[in-house]
Amino acid sequence: MERFNTAPAPEARHTLLTCLHSPRWARCITAHRPYPDLPSLLAAADEATYDLGPADLAEALAAEPLPSLPLPGDTYAAASTALSAAYAAYEARFGHGFVICLDDVAPDEALDRVLAAVRSRLANDPEEERIVATEELRRLARGRLVRALRGVGSHATSHG
To answer: Within 13 Å of residue 125, how many CA atoms lie on the same side as its CB?
Structure first.
């Protein structure tokens, strides 16, 4: 925490942008340093995520990378086709890529979780999905921030 609290503002913002690509979010969190502890920083990060406007949210969603899901060799073609179709349907419906945090999901369950989530979320109306996508971004940012402060790379999963 001390290193994050005392880092020059550009360095702190750079670290934060690796967690969530929203300059507004990164500026807000940086501006409120120092944080007494990790829970305080995470609470500020959560609040800043919920305060993202539509343009900020669109920017963050557009920057999310494709997920890296382990696909068993014998199901690769079928799974890849199913994922591609689900992602395309989602993007056509909502105008942005699918995002999901899989930090608490076992690798062998990730594919099923993503496919189920895409299918389920396709039934959402756009406002409901904006809320769900924001929550997923919040979870992604939180996990990435914890890993960044511990010096571990950010490998959260999403699609954008």
So the answer is: 2
The CATH number covering residue 45 comes to: 1.10.3330.10
What residue numbers bound the domain in which 115 lies? 64-137
Supply φ then ψ for residue 52, to 5 degrees: -65, 135
Residue 78 to residue 16: CA distance in whole angstroms: 37
Verify that 20 and 69 share a domain, yes or no.
no
The pair of structure tokens assigned to 155 is 């490998």
Tokens of 69: 């899901």
What are the mean pLDDT values of the chain's consecutive 10-residue runs (160 residues total)? 94 96 97 96 96 94 80 67 90 94 90 92 96 95 94 45
Q: Do the domain assignments include residue 147?
A: no
Within the chain, what is the greatest distance between any pair of CA atoms?
Answer: 51
- Rounded to the nearest 5 percent, the helix, strand and coil shares of the chain are 65, 0, 35
Element (H, E) at 77: helix 76-94
Same domain? 71 vs 133: yes
What global pTM score does this model have?
Answer: 0.86
57 and 81 both lie in a single domain: no
